[in-house]
Amino acid sequence: MSDQERILKFHILRYNPQIKGDIPTMKTYEVKEAPGMTIFIALNDIRENQDPSLQFDFICRAGICGSCAMIINGQPDLACRTLTSKFPEGEIKLLPLPGFELIGDLSVNTGKFMRAMSERVESWIHDQYADNVDLDRLEERMDPDVADEIYELERCVECGCCVSACATKRMREGFLSAVGFMRLARYAIDPRDKRSDEEFYEIIGDDDGVFGCMTLLGCQDYCPKDLPHQTQIAYLRRRMALVK
């Protein structure tokens, strides 16, 4: 049997917290591998042909929405970007992302966490003209290099992989985590945001902010978009250290 005809074994956590008395169990499914198969494609095959009750999330199938993040053989990653050929042994273990509310099986509620994070960092441009909109006022010009830096940070798809890979988050529930730092750094470098460093300090200047990070950098190691988490955490620390 060629590599492209091998039978994959998926060991998947099955648990529905909405069903009273349900007990978490690992269930094994066998799938015939196809050329270019991803974990996402295999999961769809299982749900369509073996078990329609299997719960997992997806929207874009192109690594843009971040909704299909899960633990794949012990590492957080996107199911739609992970090829089954990456696992020569053909044994693949799938678990839901830890650190988020479990909906069922591989489906977690990242949206609840991301919304709370956005509200906490006040994820919008703070402008002194916000309360008195002048439609004729031209937006100030932005340096192209700054615009490129903001665009780089905007590539975050809020998949939650960095949250699940963060040891500090495991120990401290209120820790903002790398996705929050990335979001806040985006506004800290944006010249249109008029917040002072003191105002940013109120959000991240404590142990639940950048000074609580243990710099283990699981966030950077497992970010599917290869975002510069280490660079941004260091940038925010230096900037906040100058406040007090």
From TrEMBL:
Residue stretches making up the 2Fe-2S ferredoxin-type domain: 17-98
InterPro entries named among the record's database cross-references: 2Fe-2S_ferredoxin-like_sf, 2Fe-2S_ferredoxin-type, 2Fe2S_fd_BS, 4Fe4S_Fe-S-bd, Beta-grasp_dom_sf, Helical_ferredxn, SDH/FRD_Iron-Sulfur, Succ_DH/fum_Rdtase_Fe-S
EC number(s) per entry: 1.3.5.1
Statement: the UniProt record of this protein carries the keyword Oxidoreductase: yes
Keyword field: 2Fe-2S, 3Fe-4S, 4Fe-4S, Iron, Iron-sulfur, Metal-binding, Oxidoreductase
GO molecular function, one term: 3 iron, 4 sulfur cluster binding
Co-factor: note: Binds 1 [3Fe-4S] cluster.
Co-factor(s): [3Fe-4S] cluster; [4Fe-4S] cluster; [2Fe-2S] cluster
Domain 4Fe-4S ferredoxin-type residues, every copy: 146-176
GO BP of this protein: respiratory electron transport chain; tricarboxylic acid cycle
SUPFAM superfamilies associated with the record: 2Fe-2S ferredoxin-like (SSF54292), alpha-helical ferredoxin (SSF46548)
Keyword Transmembrane helix (UniProt): no
Enzymatic reactions: a menaquinone + succinate = a menaquinol + fumarate
Domain of life per record: Bacteria
First-tier enzyme category under EC: oxidoreductase
NCBIfam families cross-referenced by the UniProt entry: dhsB (TIGR00384), PRK13552.1 (NF010071)
Subunit structure: Part of an enzyme complex containing three subunits: a flavoprotein (frdA), an iron-sulfur protein (frdB), and diheme cytochrome b (frdC).
Family: Belongs to the succinate dehydrogenase/fumarate reductase iron-sulfur protein family.
UniProt name for this protein: Fumarate reductase iron-sulfur subunit
Provenance organism: Desulfamplus magnetovallimortis
